[in-house]
Amino acid sequence: MAAATATLRSTEIPPTMPETTRNMTVNGMETTYQGNTGPDMGISTMGFRSQKYNPAEWHETNYSKYYQSFSDRDNAERIRHESKRTMNETETTTNKTQAEVTKKLGERLQDINFWKSELEREIQDVISETDLLLAQKKRLENGLRATEIPLHISTDNLNCRQKRQGVDLVQDDVELSLLKEVEIINNVQDLLKKTIDQSEKQIKLNREAKQNLEMDWSDKKEALEIDTKSGSLRNHHTDKQFYSGAAKFEEIQSTPESWAQFSHDNVVRAEHERMASIQLRQLIDNILEDSSRDMREQCDTVDVNFTKRIEEMEDAKTKLEENLNKICREITQMESNIDNLRKAIRDKENPMKVSQTRLNNRTYRPGVELCRDPVQYKLVGEVNEIAQSIDALTEQLNNAENARKDLQDNRMALEKEISVKKNSLFIDREKCVTTRTRYPTTLKLQGHQ
Q1: Domain tally for the chain?
Q2: pTM for the full model?
Q3: What count of other Cβ atoms lies within 10 Å of the Cβ of residue 234?
Q4: Are residues 289 and 191 in the same domain?
Q5: Could you read off the pLDDT of 307-335 as tens digits, one per residue?
Q6: Which domain does 438 fall in, by range?
Q7: What is the Cα–Cα distance from 383 to 348, expressed in whole angstroms?
């Protein structure tokens, strides 16, 4: 009993067991009646059976009721004291925990505000970078459109120069430089188209990163409003109620580390796309600058070759005209020579007639007078000499006429060649070079206009 008494907080003395109860037991054995009670069977002995409660049991039962009552009262008093202590402790703990939770909510609001500000800054940076990249894409499109005029000029020059005639239809330096110009323009157009596609993909990535940032920012804003409302909620407010099952962890909930890592990853991905966009803008600047420089340099090369070619054709045309004048003068002189030769041949007719007439007259000499005298030999020699002179003059006449024909053919060839040169000069100087004055400026090729 001493151990039981030590645990009680009540000042009430616990009940003690009656002495009679202690004396009714001998050596721990229950006292029973040992007299003759008759046979075991029969009604007369039913009330004296040993199964009845004895006085000791009666007293013990009463004592247990007293003690149980005492114990219940003592336990109730202890519970009252414990309840008051517990209420005080729980009130203190609840207030302390609520204050800590309110403080944690404040700290959480600071974290949310920090990441919300970081997201806002990155969103503005991505928007600004996307606008700059859109401007660069516009420059690329302007530059691509600007290459259409040079390509048209180059192909038109090549097509026009296909109309050159004769030997002037040559693959000269101008044609080679024009073909090179067409190749450069085609390569520039392919490069600009690929860069435009690349910029469109980067703009799409920038917008996706911006969308992810905005969705995260929107979640942060909503969470900020919820936690601000939760942090300002107090016990005396009326907008509170019980929510069963609220105090549990959802499987989909994130941890503070994963929460911060999520926003960090969004910012890092956005910065990565922004850096890629900045590098692409720098690449676009270099591409537009290099392509415009290459096209302008090739344009200048073509113009220089055109100038040289025009000078060459002017010089050739001048020399051809000089030779034509000389040929014409030579033809005039040759025609005069032919006339002289014909007159010389005609002049040999009368001497030939005189000689042949003399020979014919002398054939009528009679008898022995028909002699081969020196006169006869001289007359025969004269006829042969005149005949040889006529043959020599005829041969010279034929040569002169052939030479005149060659001169005339040469004159026609020179006139045709001069016409070819004039046609080539008209194509190169009047059509090609004039058309090339519409070649775009460097600023236009770089997409600034």
Answers
A1: 2
A2: 0.71
A3: 9
A4: yes
A5: 999 999 999 999 999 999 999 999 999 99
A6: 325-442
A7: 10
